[in-house]
Amino acid sequence: MTQALDPFLTAGTHRATFTVASAPPTPLDPVPELLAGAAEVDLTPPPGLPKAGYSRNARTGIGFRGRLRARVLHLRSGTSSVAIVQCDLLGGSAVVQRLVASAVAGSTDVPLAGLFVGATHTHGAPGQFLGTDLYNGFASNQPGFDPVWTQFLVDRITDGVVSAVASRRPARLSWGSTEVWGLTRNRSLAAHVQNPDRTDRRVAAQRTYASVDPRLRLLRVDAVDGGPLAALVVFGVHGTGIPMRNSVYNADLWAYVYEEMRSRLGSTPVIGALQGTHADVAPALRPGRAGDVEAARVGRGIGAAASSLFSSLEPSLQTDVALGAGLREVDLATSRSVDGIELPARPALGAALIAGAFENETPVVHRIPPFRAGTPKPHGDEDPHGAKWVIGSRWLQPVVMPLRRFPRVIPVHVLRIGSAVLVGAPFEITVDAGRRVATAVAASSDVDDVIVSSVANEYAGYCTTAEEYTRQHYEGGHTLYGPRTNAFLAAHAASLASSVVPGAVVDEALPERTFDLRAHQYWPSASGGSGASGASGASGASGASGASAAPRAAGSARFIDVTAEQDAYWEQGWYDGAPGDLAWDQPIVHVEWTPSGEESWQTLVDDSSCALEVRHAGAADGGHRYLVRWHGPELRDGRDYRFVVRGLPLRPFN
Question: In Å, how far are 140, 315, 484 from 90, measured between CA atoms?
């Protein structure tokens, strides 16, 4: 589909330099009614890719538990057309956004300004697809941009956008809001209470649960002549319910949000999520119990609240919906100031970043100044980075970290959807920083309902308020562009929002973007090849499954009993082709059951569920050994069970 990455789809690529142009939007004829379509695509890659979010403490993926997906919601009204992509990834990506926009230009009416690529900010998915060397290195346990993995993402998301547009039909929609308390907490309370509008400045433990944004926003979309089409959730909580030591790909607590909503709403609506203003908000896990049991408790609680809200919105669904879109790419090389607010000439990484965030601190280092949270630097008003201790000093860091490695283009996205405005930015935005952006946008437009979404269309570190920044916790140390970042973002979002009136498509993207990225292929090649034949779409067939030998059984199942940190599970192995030979974005395994003594097998659960985990256990006996685990299994008398792996039934168990 897209040609820009083709020269780099080989294992020998060490640098990927390519340019993606932005075509101006084509004026659209008005449509008399709201049209909507939705689609879901699988983004699960093969083992071998570094996971992003926990930096050097992350693990390389060896399989999956619950699949990674992208959900696409397409809306067409008046003269505007948008597609909101909700990915189970660390963040959006300017590379992916631009390449998808280019790929869909010929077959859809969705322009670049209407293509919103957001994410849940799970820390359980691979990185290596972002638009900067800094975060293709720092976010993961291994550095480098992977062109094959990125091309896979582009192809799959392109398929989703095209499918959603092709399926559009007359529709109705409604926004709703509810509050979720007790499942999240503020992980940086001492910084949060520095904000002048925080009247309660206590830092007692109970205040961590109150110092969050409890609002869960949900967009329900139904077909006029049928049932629900889609549910889009926006909520602020870090995707850190699964610990850094975990080595399988996962959507973190969001996987359980989806499962809970499907259990209550059925399989018809396409259910997806975007991250809210979460930078200082963590899931309220029991201490020392990070893992799927706690992630499920928090995720299912959020999912239950979202499901109730979804059901309550049916009476308020409307067909008369105003739609508008605007995308501004702020090139900091030429535009560092807006409304008298100026950012530093160069970004800087702060010492507090090295100490880690509160619930995932770096051992020993987090206790030592200046890395220790709450150790600001004495500074004068002339210092553009204020209280930040710059790692290596402001003289040495530029030598080690050239400017080109940092995010230098800041995308600001505004979508007007009915009664609400959705604002997307590439930062992880704190609760109060998000409130200030929303207040500025509401003041500049005629819409009071403003929803702010973090990590949209790229990843560019953090955005705290100026007051939070003075404390230099992890979030402030990771605010690359200093204490004025929040005001800068709010001014641009407000300015753009004032132009996004109903029917408008405001394209303030750069005419073209050139990316120059250190490259490394982690995606495993198919047997007998050195290229990208394992990547769906990059060379043709998904996963090149035809190259794989038939699976072979490898012994009996074994039962592992429940512990304090995990549910009981059944585990069984099999032999199969190399990871690069299998289609990981296609079903691999499911569980069947039959009454004992009979042969009437029927499917009970498949690997789209978080109940099933698939792991690559390494090369063995001339092939590759794999394990499947069934977590929280059905435990009842009078039934036999078996795993079926790529069509091969394994030995039954009970």
Answer: 10, 35, 25
C-alpha to C-alpha distance for 478 and 480, rounded to whole angstroms: 6
d(CA 107, CA 189): 48
At 184 the three-state DSSP class reads strand
User: What does the angle CA 280 – CA 468 – CA 420 come to, to the nearest 5 degrees?
Assistant: 60
Task: Check: CB of residue 573 under 8 Å from CB of residue 617.
Answer: yes
304 to 264, 480, 484, 609: CA distances (angstroms): 8, 36, 38, 17
What is the rounded distance in angstroms from the CA atom of residue 316 to the CA atom of residue 311? Answer: 11
Q: Quick one: CA dihedral 290, 291, 297, 301, positive or negative?
A: positive
Number of helices followed by number of strands (H, E) in the chain: 13, 31
**165/219 Cα distance (integer angstroms):** 18
* pLDDT tens digits for range 434-471: 999 999 999 999 899 999 999 999 999 999 999 999 99
Backbone angles phi, psi at 157, to 5 degrees: -65, -35
Token pair belonging to 185: 């907490």
- How much is the pTM? 0.96
How does pLDDT run across 473-521, given as a tens digit for each residue?
999 999 999 999 999 999 999 999 999 999 999 999 999 999 999 999 9
Q: Can you tell me the distance from the alpha carbon of 614 to that of 379, in angstroms, rounded to the nearest whole number? A: 52
